[in-house]
Amino acid sequence: MDAQGFVAALTPAVTDANARERFLADPKAVLIAAGLDLPEWFTVSAREGDAAELTITLPALRDPDADLSDMELEGVVGGWGLSRHSLNAMSYDACVTCLQVEG
To answer: pTM above 0.85?
Structure first.
């Protein structure tokens, strides 16, 4: 799925109350149904707020030849002790524009 497909998957949740309810209840299922290929261990959460926000949590930089342990994988899924980078206070239109330019 490219950036336009991602934005297309999110748009109903911004414009339709029923789609919003479905997205808030199970955002991962909605994104998968729209064609985003997500691994089983990857978690997706959604919340309502004043700004569109995309937060991606990454573990510490690792040796590319090393495998993550089961405990480290659980930490990535749970989000403990990891760095966060947020695109805060970005309007929905700015987010859409950003995704279109990046994609």
So the answer is: no
